[in-house]
């Protein structure tokens, strides 16, 4: 699989957040309703003869659990204190997935069936193989979103010592 794009990581439920403000550290427990990966697959198989194929794939992960540890750093810019996300490590819990491939070439119907059977019979091994890539992609996207928000809001605005009544 290549050129995978991840969608749906902004649709989640926060189960818990445990902050450690002295260390600028947060432990998070989240559930994603749906995660979608779209990309391409290609393979080069040689049994009696060489078979190569390239096509589009779509993977849907439902009810994905995520436990994450977020580290923040503080910087001072123009006399104001700001934070940014420096590190996000996580462990995702993928229970099951649905894998769809582009089956537009009718002459490859038997090959498509073989691919689906191999995937459906080896889901646990596949999850183990792709999990680090998914965790990395989610981490990078969350850090990007957080830092986009944090660069506009000062530390004092985020973690005010005084409660403002509006």
UniProtKB/TrEMBL annotation:
It comes from the Eukaryota. GO terms for cellular component: extracellular space. Coiled coil: none annotated. InterPro entries: Haemolymph_juvenile_hormone-bd, To_sf. This is Lipid-binding serum glycoprotein N-terminal domain-containing protein. It comes from Atta cephalotes (Leafcutter ant).
């Amino acid at each position: 699989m290549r050129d995978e794009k991840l969608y749906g990581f902004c649709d989640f439920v926060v189960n818990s957040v445990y902050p450690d403000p002295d260390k600028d550290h947060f432990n998070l427990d989240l559930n994603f309703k749906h995660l979608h990966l779209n990309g391409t697959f290609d393979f080069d198989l040689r049994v009696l003869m060489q078979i190569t194929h390239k096509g589009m794939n779509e993977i849907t992960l439902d009810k994905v659990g995520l436990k994450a540890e977020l580290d923040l750093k503080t910087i001072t810019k123009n006399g104001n204190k700001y934070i940014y996300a420096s590190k996000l490590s996580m462990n995702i819990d993928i229970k099951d997935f649905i894998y769809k491939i582009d089956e537009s070439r009718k002459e490859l119907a038997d090959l498509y069936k073989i691919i689906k059977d191999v995937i459906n019979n080896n889901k646990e091994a596949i999850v183990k193989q792709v999990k680090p890539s998914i965790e990395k992609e989610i981490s990078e996207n969350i850090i990007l979103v957080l830092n986009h928000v944090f660069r506009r809001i000062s530390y004092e605005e985020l973690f005010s010592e005084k409660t403002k009544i509006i």
